[in-house]
Amino acid sequence: MRGMAIITSLVVGGASLALAQPPDYTGRAAVSDRDHDSSVNNPQGWFSLSSHNRIDSASEIVPVHARIRWLRLEPRSGRPVIERLTVQYADGTQQDFDVGAKLRKDGITIDLHAERGVRGVIVHARPDARASYSLFGEKG
Fold first, then answer.
1. Domain contains 11
2. Domain that holds residue 79
3. Which residues, other chains included, contact 25 with Cβ-Cβ below 8 Å and sequence gap of 6+?
4. 47 phi-psi bin (left φ>0, alpha ψ -120 to 50, beta other)
């Protein structure tokens, strides 16, 4: 019985230690297998966070105030060049996702790795008044 208590303590203690590791707040945006056209019938539950945003400046803050697991950027006009996204979480932390590419026609999906409260998204882009994008979110 005492041996079982020691094993249980080690398992619970190890799990607590794993949870205590500081989170990684940088990431590389990756095209996901969840990619699809968000604007067509919205079958997976995507919802619009902003629509047809022109890229007039190097960064734009998109207020969100929702729990989100996935973000999706889609081009609307021109060839938007997105440098990176900064996700501002409700708990005050933020996470950068390097994109560093022109948005292709099918867009890009970013996995936040957990459904979290998001306050806003800062879109860092190369200014181009002819280019615009739409931003979508999906709960996990």
1. no
2. 25-138
3. 93, 94, 95, 96
4. beta
Look up residue 118 and give its two tokens: 């998001």
Report the b/e string of 56-87 with b at 16+ CB within 10 A: eeeebebebeeebbbbbbbbeebebbbebbbb
Model pLDDT for residues 128-137, shown as the tens digit of each residue: 999 999 999 9
pLDDT tens readout for residues 82-138: 999 999 999 999 999 999 989 999 899 999 999 999 999 999 999 999 999 999 999
Residues 6+ apart with CB under 8 A from 50: 62, 134, 135
Q: What is the pTM of this model?
A: 0.69
CATH number for the domain spanning 110: value is 2.60.120.1300
The number of domains in the chain is: 1
DSSP E strands in 34-127: the ranges are 47-55, 59-77, 81-89, 94-102, 108-125
Residues contacting 35, CB < 8 A, separation 6+: 72, 106, 107, 108, 109
Closest-CA residue to 71 (of 80, 79, 62): 62
